[in-house]
Design goal:
By secondary structure, the protein is of the alpha/beta class. The protein has helices at 3-16, 41-52, 68-73, 124-134, 166-174, 190-197, 207-211; strands at 59-64, 77-84, 94-95, 109-115, 135-146, 182-187, 220-227. Helix content is 28%, strand content 21%. A seven-stranded mixed sheet has the order 3-2-1-4-5-7-6, with helices on both faces. The longest helix is centred in the N-terminal third of the chain and has 14 residues, at 3-16.
Amino acid sequence: MSEGLKTRIKRRLKRATLRWGSFRRLTPISRFYGYDRGLPLDRIYIERFLERHRDDIRGRVLEVKNDAYARRFGSNVSRVDVLDIDAANPHATIVADLNAADALPVGCFDCILLTQTLQYVFDLQSALVALKRALAPGGVLLVSVPGLTRTPLGETDGKTFLCFTLTGVRRLFSDFFAPEDLSICCYGNVLAATAFLHGLASNEMTEAELLHEDPEFPVIICARAIALH
């Protein structure tokens, strides 16, 4: 037997030791982001980010679709407005489309919570103009966007236009906020990303597996930006 053949056999045997288990399939384990199995993985990361910046969620706050995060993580919140493009939302106090630069009132909000929203906005430049203008002096914009995620088709609540990279988020926000007023971070790793794509829930992973951070495999990317007018 030639040395070359021996080498190829060894490589094949080495590959054969990998056990895919439940992941060796062409369809995800769940198509519901993990909601049918527990708390989705991305929500753990979003909540960790908001907890980290709890002191920013104060005064008059704007949140999308409902006020759950503002009420849960806010400190000294005086008023919460709810933004939605859908006028049928009974919680909405502001009905507007972030694709328009004049979508929001100017200089009103001490904090804007924009979690998992920008992927539904096609005109990101107009959205950032509207968001920055809506902040009061010293106001803080807290944003989360998807990194590695599925892109479902036929959604009833809108269409997913985008997924994001760390470099892309940094470049986008740097056009509107000075470097010293902007911080960007990401959450996730290759195992968490694989689990999230399959629709596993956070309770199916250990804390160490969830919280290990590898910026090459971001499940969630977050930005904190301060409007210093």
